[in-house]
Amino acid sequence: MHPTLTPGIDVALLVFYAFVLFFLCLVIYLRREDRREGYPLEHEFTGRLESEGGFFLTALPKTFRLPFGRGTVTTPTKGREPVEIAARFTDRFPGAPYAPTGNPLVDGIGPAAYAHRANHPDIDMEGHPRIVPMGVALDYQIERRDPDPRGMPVLGCDGALAGTVSELWIDRADRLIRYLAVDLAPGDLTGAGGAVLVPMMMCNVERGRRRVVCDAVTAAQFADAPRIGAIDQITLYEEDRVLGYFGGGYLYATPDRQEPLL
Question: What is the count of structural domains for the chain?
Answer without folding.
Answer: 1
